[in-house]
Every structure is written in structure tokens, then in C-alpha cells.
Amino acid sequence: MLLIDAHSEGITKSPLKKMGWWASDTAHLHFDEVRVPVSHLLGQENAGFKVIMNNFNMERFWLGAIAYGYALVCYEEALEWAQQRKTFGKRLIDHQVVRHKLVDMATQLTATRALLEDTAYRMGKKELQGSELIAQISMLKNVATRTMQFCADAAVQTLGGMGFMRGMKSERIYREVKVNMIGGGAEEIMKDLISKQLQY
Length: 200
Ligand SMILES: Cc1cc2nc3c(=O)[nH]c(=O)nc-3n(C[C@H](O)[C@H](O)[C@H](O)COP(=O)(O)OP(=O)(O)OC[C@H]3O[C@@H](n4cnc5c(N)ncnc54)[C@H](O)[C@@H]3O)c2cc1C
Hints:
Number of strands: 4
Structural class: mainly alpha
Strand order of the largest sheet: 1-2
Radius of gyration: 21 Å
Helix content: 55-70%
Bound molecules: flavin-adenine dinucleotide
Largest sheet: 2 strands, antiparallel
Number of helices: 5
């Protein structure tokens, strides 16, 4: 693993336009005969993959926590809207169909929070660490990002036309779903990793 000065000669960057994650710059990087001082080696030579893999466990855990947080914001926005907006003489929340949508969101949030807290507990206990925990962290990433996807979709739907408008939290979160499901290890790759860790 090498630390490379982004201003080194031979590096070119082409910025990319993205669906979301606008606060984080993402570019295509091209390296052409870039010279790297020996002192910029991080850890041991040829052991970079292990460093990245170790980092991934924590990254996938916090991606799970972030996805849960985003999902919660969607639920809260949808609930508040449903309590205020009136259609056909009733508040949205007085329609059973809308209440059920909110209940489905709350149910997925509760299950995700339980998994998140259990994973955090196990990560803090040395004796519980190992391949099962690595599998659980990957499960958490998949479950939490699915919950985020479900809640973002349900919230935008509950907000109706307003859900399509820039300025609503759920509209922004809807555009952040895919990077969480793909970045840090896509769902399919997580499942492959889980099956390996569980020695199928
Ligand atoms: C905005 C953004 C920021 C990012 N930032 C970083 C960063 O800071 N650092 C970093 O290292 N990476 C970063 N990434 C990269 C990210 O981790 C990858 O995009 C992600 O891991 C998926 O890899 P890929 O894009 O090469 O897709 P591919 O590997 O081409 O996969 C495409 C699809 O095929 C599926 N697939 C691939 N192989 C298999 C297989 N063997 N079996 C079944 N299905 C498979 C994938 O699951 C996916 O659905 C970023 C990505 C984005 C979009």
C-alpha cells in the first residue's frame, strides 16, 4: 500500500458527475510513470491487501450505521408529513394504507437497529471476533442498505409530488441509496464473502 501525493507528476484526474454523494469528490485517476518515494510505503511491502480488508470491516460497519440513520430520517419525514397533509377530508395517517407503509418502515428500522447494536456489541468483545463476525458485518451492510432503500422509496411515495422536489430530505436520500448498496463492497460480493466466512 502506497501513499501517493495527488500533485505528483504523471497523475491526471477527470472529475465524474454523480447521482449523489456530492459532498465527496470522485474522479477517474490515471497514473503515468508516477515516482513514489520508498518512505511512502504504508505497512509492509506486498501486504496492502490485508490492510484494505481490515479497513473494510470497519467501513462496512459504519456504512450500515449510516444507512440506518438515513432510513430513520426518511421515516421521520414521512411520519410528520402524514400527520399534517390532508386528502379527501382526512389526514394521510388516517388512511390505513398509509399507516401500514409507516409500520413497514418502522418494522425494518427496528430489525436493523437490533442487528446494528448486536454487531457493535460483538465488535467490542475480543472473544466474539472471527469469521462469524466478519460475516455478520457483511449481513449488516446488506440489511441496512436494503432498509435504507425501502424507507427512501416509501417516504418519497408518502410525500407524493413533494417527495420529488429538491429540498425534501427523502428526495436527497433516495439519490444516496445506490452508492451505499454498491460502495464498500456490492451486495452480491457481500453474499459471496458471507458464504466463504461461514465455510459453505
Ligand atoms: C461514488 C463512489 C465512491 C467510491 N469511493 C471509493 C473509495 O473511496 N475507495 C475505494 O476503494 N472504492 C471506492 N468506490 C468503488 C466501489 O467500492 C466500487 O464501485 C464497488 O466495490 C463495486 O465495484 P465496481 O464498480 O468495480 O463494480 P463491478 O465489480 O464491475 O460490479 C458490477 C456488478 O456486478 C456484480 N458482480 C461483480 N463481480 C461479481 C461476482 N463475482 N459475482 C456476482 N456478482 C458480481 C457486482 O456486485 C455489481 O452488482 C467508490 C464508488 C463510488 C460509486
